[in-house]
Amino acid sequence: MAKLHEKIQIEELNEPYREIAEKIGVESAVEVAKLFGGSQVYFPKLDSVLRIYRDALIKKEFNGYNYRELSKKYGLSETWVRLICKELALEKQNEPLERQIKMEAI
After folding, report:
1. For 14, what's the count of Cα atoms within 13 Å in the CB-facing half-sphere?
2. CA distance 13 to 10
3. What is the DSSP letter of 102?
4. Is 98 helix (H, G, I), strand (E, B) or coil?
């Protein structure tokens, strides 16, 4: 009985497993069933996952002045890029400029 799932065909599956099997294959659909069977699972929209990744890339590429460049590269408004980089912009404003003497708190 443990190997019964190896012989099942897509046509024999009920929804949602049939749709899953059509996308990722029967073997993977069976693994999903084993992992989540009997549970209600919520998958956030892929947009939210990609947004987090995109925002991290924007922050990594941000140099304190390149709002327009980043907005064009990522298809966002300059205002939106400014919101994403707001904390970084404040940190960069407080950094000493090149060749500037850093003042230590007394």
Report:
1. 1
2. 5
3. P
4. coil
